[in-house]
Amino acid sequence: LGRAGRLNEAEDLLRTIQSDIIGWRSLLTACRTYGNVELGRRCFDQVVQLDSKYASGYVLMSNIYANACMWKDADKIEQLRRCAGAWKRPGRAWIELNNKVHEFI
Length: 105
Hints:
Distance between the termini: 35 Å
Order of helices and strands: HHHHHEE
Strand content: 5-15%
Radius of gyration: 16 Å
Strand order of the largest sheet: 1-2
Structural class: mainly alpha
């Protein structure tokens, strides 16, 4: 439903089935895609309620605010993330070159 832009229906479904954090994060991602700040905030609140240390929820909500040019709100979300101690682990990539594997962090 989120990919199809049917965000309110998706929210109703998640509330009906009492979804886990993955469902709410998926809808939060759809809110970023469609620029729905109000619903995004409700999804973010659900994500934080389920796991306050889940860093991607903070990043997604901050991006939603930033895309809407709501810079003060984006900064507040970043401050909340820091206070909650939610940190995203750095990504890793590997490449093989001349039979030697190189790792990038």
